[in-house]
Specification:
The protein is mainly α.
Length: about 130
Amino acid sequence: MTGAVLIGGVGFAAPAAAQVATQPAAASVTTMSAGRLGASVGGVLGLVGVIIGGLALARPGGRLGTGHLGAFAALAAGLIAMALGGLVVVTSDSGIGTGNGRGGAYVALVVGLIALVVGGLALARPRRAD
């Protein structure tokens, strides 16, 4: 009877051990995966959009704010940042901290949304007749 229990216990432990072995390992800190790269590009692009939109909002007659060029650039950068962030969130198969770029993608979504808002405010702002 004891032998049957030992064999049964080992038999049930084998599928559990196989399941643990097939789980994906987390990427190291220095590994640049496609998800991390996409999230990083989206975050940087969103940050550039926030900066350009802020300059267009603060100085509508300046170089970057001439016409509505700065506002349109901020809107475009924010939209692309949100698209990249959303793509990484949808295609990542693991959670935050596994090296798939999901955390950075959330940051890219938020920063891209901020760039869209600032660019929209700069676009909606009336021009001064100087």
